[in-house]
Design a protein that fits this description.
Layout (H helix, E strand, L loop, with lengths): L4 E3 L20 E6 L4 E6 L2 E7 L15 E2 L5 E7 L6 E7 L4 E8 L2 E4 L15 E8 L4 E7 L4 E7 L14 E10 L2 E8 L9 E6 L5 E3 L8 E3 L4 E6 L18 E6 L4 E7 L4 E8 L4 E7 L4 E7 L4 E4 L8 E5 L2 E8 L2 E8 L6 E7 L7 E6 L23 E2 L19 E4 L7 E4 L8 E5 L4 E11 L2 E7 L5 E5 L1 E2 L2 E2 L1 E4 L31 E4 L3 E5 L8 E6 L3 E11 L2 E8 L4 E5 L1 E2 L2 E2 L1 E4 L32 E3 L4 E3 L5 E6 L7 E9 L7 E2 L3 E3 L3 E5 L5 E9 L12 E5 L2
Length: 716
């Protein structure tokens, strides 16, 4: 594909680069398009391969957000949903064998780790994959699956004694953030269903001893430089100036690094006027790319290790995804509704980037992986490196806190906590763990209590048994309405409430066109979306809509607070307003599916044994036998019979036919046909070139890859 020049604008300082030389081995990248479930393999020459991730009935809903790719680029992990339920299934696909190699079903799941990203969920040797999920109504689990023996290599849950007192209410989801080694995994507890930008907690898990230790770096990391284990992240830090009123969803005013050898994190860059996000190591870890929002517009910058800005992309060139490569970085952005992947070679002193691939209009392919296919070695240590800037005192792992909300500890039996509520509300103390128990009294914000028992999950809440100063005991909830109601206190220090912060999302990107109109059916395609009483943030929150919620568009659009709002009606008749696009993410997606007719199920958490991993085989690709490739027919009528050998594992076959112009280009599709036979006869259109291919379909609906195209020509 022809490359289009893109000028790379130098900012305050000239980029510090080595002498220019030819570009070395080309990178390879996997892109995932959530709209279609398509994986696309791209390198500097353009598109190399493309295919749709297989379904596995009854799991028929492809991931709307993310997939995870192994370090060697060969193995892809993703989650399928089951329509009309909260049942989901982890799928592990091998690109080299073109087959699903493992499945792991889970039931009554609120969120999974892949919903939130988990780019480092595979071990360095690609043999292990970690998968976390939150349960409904409460609790969470994470497993590590050995893909060489198809067995569970480790598991951890909110019920483990080592994690007693750690948050486990509805939506808390363990997300693997970095495999330090095959025996050591960093993970964070993500607050699903909230706008929180900081994890509830983060740890390093020893898979041999099953012990956990606090970690302040990997849990919040935007990226990890594998050769050194360094992590980079954007955080709110109250030690530096900020302008929070300028940002609707909060402000991340610092860029920080974590050094595992120092077991500490510290800020290397701060800007009171910006909110920063999407930090990525680029140019073999010599620099960091990130996007900044100043309250009006976004712009991408490059930062040196010494804390100085090295450059920026031009005004208006805003990536929605970035990934580092040894010689610079690649990024994805929209141009007139068409997504593109661009490459910039910093090592060669490149000031003209290149468009290397263009995608389907009005989609947002994400960079799922970049590397050298078949090898885990890609980015490498490339000295000399400048020392990191250090703008403030380090935060050590031993302190066990993260980001801006420095919680004084965690909730444990025997510890003290302070009651926190908003708008002067009181907290109800009940005779037992559940809303059906009698209210003994109500306590005011600021009341100090002692934890004497718990936690216990009931009715969708996590409950603690507390004792007041006058000796009264009773049960209270740990979280309510997205706010933490019990704030741990240690050493007599003041407790700081963990209030749901938010990521820096500057409204709806105007380059993302609307796909909706009044009368359409649609699904919610984000983890949580608020339904409001009127368009805009002034509207009361009527409901938190979860992923796959079915809605009917009954009014709108109305522009308010930099978003386009549509009036929705839910299946139970509830009506309200929600935004279609947040940032560059389409969170309400059009569907041709009719409204579900069955009564929604009330799901009850029932303990079940750990599901088994099992291997399923993709059927073999059929071998075409007739007509021969390039065959010429001089017959009329143009009756054509396509034939192929029976393929193992196939119960039926899909046949795709096309007619083309005289040169064999500009081909058009017939309607695909499905047959249980190993041949198909039809009358071809016109004296022209045709081509065909076939693929197998198993009894369970798993499809093989397509066979190669075969061409033929009719002369009359």
């Amino acid at each position: 594909m022809r490359r289009l020049p893109l000028y790379f604008l130098l900012a305050l300082l000239v980029l510090m680069v080595a002498p220019a030389y030819a570009i070395p081995a080309e990178f390879t990248a996997w892109l995932y398009t959530p709209d279609t479930g398509t994986m696309t393999l791209v390198d500097l020459s353009g598109e190399v391969d493309s295919f749709e991730l297989p379904l596995a009935p009854p799991y028929d809903v492809r991931p709307f957000t993310n997939v995870v790719v192994s370090p060697n680029g060969n193995t892809i992990a993703y989650v399928l949903g089951q329509s009309g339920s909260f049942n989901q299934q982890l799928m592990v696909y091998s690109y080299s064998s073109r087959a699903i190699i493992a499945q792991y079903p889970v039931t009554n799941v609120a969120y999974t780790s892949i919903d939130f990203g988990g780019r480092f969920a595979f071990s360095p040797d690609s043999n292990l994959v970690a998968f976390g999920y939150s349960k409904d109504p409460a609790g969470w689990e994470m497993v590590v699956i050995d893909l060489t023996s198809f067995s569970i290599a480790g598991s951890i849950s909110s019920l483990d004694p080592a994690l007693s007192g750690v948050e486990a209410n509805f939506g808390i989801t363990p997300m693997p953030t970095y495999f330090i080694s095959s025996n050591s995994l960093a993970f964070a507890l993500i607050r699903g269903g909230t706008e929180a930008s900081e994890p509830a907690a983060s740890f390093v898990w020893d898979l041999v001893t099953n012990g956990v230790t606090p970690n302040v770096g990997y849990g919040s990391a935007s990226d990890v430089f594998r050769p050194t284990g360094e992590a980079v992240m954007t955080l709110t830090d109250t030690r530096f100036g900020s302008t929070p009123d300028a940002f609707m969803f909060g402000q991340q005013n610092t860029l920080q690094v974590y050094d595992s050898t120092a077991a500490a994190r510290w800020p290397v860059y701060a800007n009171a006027a910006w909110s920063m996000y999407m930090a990525r190591f680029v140019f073999n870890g010599r620099q960091v790319a990130f996007v900044a929002y100043d309250g009006t517009a976004e712009r991408a910058y490059i930062l040196n290790r010494d804390g100085s800005l090295a450059g920026s992309l031009p005004v208006g060139v805003v990536p929605y995804d970035i990934a580092g490569v040894p010689d610079g970085f690649i990024y994805a952005k929209q141009d007139g509704g068409i997504p593109g992947l661009y490459s910039i070679n910093l090592r060669a002193g490149d000031t003209n980037g290149s468009l290397v691939w263009s995608g389907v209009p009005n989609t947002y392919p994400r960079i799922a992986w970049v590397g050298a296919l078949g090898s885990a070695d890609f980015m490498f240590v490339d000295p000399p490196y400048a020392a990191w800037a250090e703008l403030a005192e380090r935060v050590a792992d031993s302190e066990g806190s993260s980001g801006s909300s420095e919680t004084a500890g965690i909730l444990r039996i025997g510890a003290t906590a302070t009651v926190f509520t908003t708008e002067g509300d009181s907290l109800r103390v009940r005779s037992g763990p559940g809303t059906s128990f009698v209210v003994l009294r109500e306590i005011d914000p600021g009341t100090v209590v002692t934890l004497v028992d718990g936690p216990t999950s009931a009715g969708g809440f996590v409950w603690w048994n507390i004792r007041l100063a006058d000796g009264t005991t009773g049960w209270v909830v740990e979280f309510a309405d997205g706010e933490q109601t019990l704030i741990p206190v240690s050493g007599g220090g003041a407790a700081t409430p963990v209030v749901s912060a938010a990521t820096a999302t500057p409204g709806a990107d105007p380059s993302v066109p609307s796909q909706l109109r009044v009368g359409d059916n649609a699904f919610i395609t984000t983890n949580s979306l608020r339904l409001r009483s009127v368009p805009g943030f002034a509207g009361a929150v009527l409901r938190e809509m979860t992923r796959n919620t079915f809605v009917r568009i009954i009014g709108g659009p109305t522009r308010a607070d930099n978003f386009d709002w549509w009036q929705l009606r839910l299946l139970d008749g509830t009506q309200g307003w929600a935004a279609e696009v947040v940032g560059t993410e389409r969170v309400i997606t059009f569907t041709t599916s009719p409204a579900p007719t069955s009564t929604p199920l009330v799901l009850v958490l029932i303990p079940t044994p750990t599901p088994l991993i099992f291997v399923i085989l993709t059927p073999a690709v059929p071998v075409q036998t007739s007509p021969a490739d390039g065959a010429v027919f001089n017959i009329f009528p143009r009756t054509t019979t396509l034939m192929w050998n029976a393929a193992s594992g196939a119960s039926s076959y899909e046949v795709r036919r096309q007619w083309c112009d005289g040169s064999g280009n500009n081909c058009n599709n017939y309607t695909d046909v499905t047959t249980a036979a190993t041949s198909y006869t039809f009358d071809f259109i016109g004296a022209q070139v045709g081509r065909w291919r076939v693929r197998s379909v198993s009894a369970g609906g798993v499809k093989s890859d397509w066979s190669p195209w075969r061409t033929f020509r009719h002369q009359q």
